[in-house]
Specification:
Oligomer: single chain
Shape: elongated
Distance between the termini: 90 Å
Radius of gyration: 33 Å
Structural class: alpha+beta
Number of strands: 27
Length: about 725
Amino acid sequence: METGEEFGPWLARQLKLAGKTQAELADELKLTRAAVSAWITGRSTPRPTVMTDIAKALGTDVGTVHTRTTDTQAGLPVTWYHRAGYPDGGRDLGNAAAFAFDADVQVLARETCQNSLDERLTENGRPVRVRYTLHELTGEALDAFREAILWNDLFPHYSAVSEVAGNQKVGRVVDAGVRDMYEKGRLVLLRVDDYNASGLTGDDYADGKFAAVVRRQLESLKSGPGAGGSYGLGKATLWATSALGLVLINSTLSVPHEGRTERRVIGRLELPWREVNGEPYAGPAWFGRPDPDSPGARVARSWWADEATVARLHLTRESDEPGTSFLIVGAHDVASLEGKSDDGKSDDEPIGDEEGDEDTRDIRKMHGRLVEALGRDFWAAMTGGGSRLPLLEVSVRALRNGKEVVPDKQVDPTVEQPSRTRALRAYYEGTTVDLLTEAGQVAARSVPLKLPLSGGARGSLGTHQAVLLVTEAEGDRDGGKNQVHSLRGNRMTVKRAGVQRLPLGTNPFQAVLLVGEASGEAAPFAKEAEEFLRAAEPPEHDRWGQTEELTLRWSPSAYRRINALTAEVNNAVRELVARPKRSSREGGEAVRRALTVRTRPKAKAPAGPVVPVLDKLDATVGDNGEWRITAEASIPRGDEIVPMVPVAQLDVRSGGRPTLDWAELVAVEGCEVEDGILRFPPGTRRAKFRGLTDVTSHPVRTALTRLVLELRAGKGE
């Protein structure tokens, strides 16, 4: 038999709900007040025969008293509490946090799935399971749901908002949502369930996850340093996706509250300021049991619902595993109107009739957009290999009046992002290579992130070695080619960026950058990198750069460390994807004869700055007629090394040699390239660089020319 909370706290709450005192209960039971007080404080428990009398006094059955898995139905009923207008006459015409995001199911998927990852229970090693259910209600099913949420009590508030809808944005959205429900006789519910997550633990009002989500704004209580969220804004996407501003919640707790864990239910409504029957209301409202401790028992708090109630509210969970179900009432997807439609037509092409037939509540289209977003943003969290297990499992389904419209589809990262999934799995399994020489290989390279000292202090805390993975792209299934997906601890894709100035003829590739705990929890400065990059993310968590938190905690120039990381990543990618150079024999005797290397005599023991000397050159003619060179320079021993400029020229019989422009010039080792100038760190003895000439600067066909390469001091003047 399922047993709920301890008898004393349960009885104390039932007396409050029934409006009875301990003395009144003692009189009804013909016992002393001291006996009832002993039950409340846990010093004793009533005999089985007395349990029956207690059930009668509370107006419930004896089974409820024995199991204590739910509250009695006597006393204060579940209702809506609307926050009264401010005494000073102030008005909030909507929740500003909701405007940080669009009414977009793809944004919703990103924020809610990130939150579920952050709240994953890690002790058992299992992934957090998230399911998205789109459910369209019509006819009797719609009527039954509206009755369950006490729609008749809410309708005057919606009517008041609609009357002034033309004056402000939130009112217009709400008015459109109500009209769609009545005119088309439908209501779309979007439920987000997670399992193996912490659930909304804590008190209704005191600090805790429940209050942070249900009662407060801009508060983020995450479970670990690798968490994705930090602003407390992500939950606003739930209400932003509801055209009615209404979300219902059912949570199974990982830590008992009031001795209970299952079916903790509450609803929150976000409306603008309104006036109903002459009474002003501030905006938010809560659906729950009136709190006997609040003045006049008006404030609604969460309650422990029975199974029949959660079924009527479409909040039934599939198991008793900890986690939370969020039900978005009146879900719509305004952003689905952007871009191309399902038939491939673009924005400026007419679709349907003159008025347009686009529908922001099409559950089939919303299903597809959810699968697309989840595969794009969370493929890495769903990927395992070696000793690493997936952190996440996600599925999406669509129903109409309880019947399946689109089957439950589990998002498969190998289908949504095959190349990147292969790269990450190879890293986990230890099968990466240093250079790409065959199809299907994954190359790995360490790239440094130099972490600054906090508080604006000069210097570096240390260097964190991020991991870069590069592999060939598989068709168009990965989305845009030649991109780097960057991610940290919770393995959600934070940044997607292309790589500029790629070598000519580069084969399509995909790359993954693992930073912080994503590169391995044992990596040096992994936690410090997590903290630094988390502070560098905006509320959308879609890039790393300058933020107010980064400035306040580190310095105004701290973002430059991220820019330096990006530069290191791009350079490493360009090196890894460059086509392997051909041997001197492979180029043919004619090419070898066309190559001249001009060297300068080595200086004797230097008395001042030393000058690098070009002593090795390998050059070939590329597919597009460009010269491709790999050169090495030796550097005499000295404390100061003169910067040098590589100059490519064509050898001619008479007159000045035409100078060729560089299409690309990159450092390989022992030097850096800055504005076409090679600079050498002190103490360097050898340096290597690569380049390819700009074909448009060639005055004649390359096959008819010979190449001369010089190193000139200074700026090449």
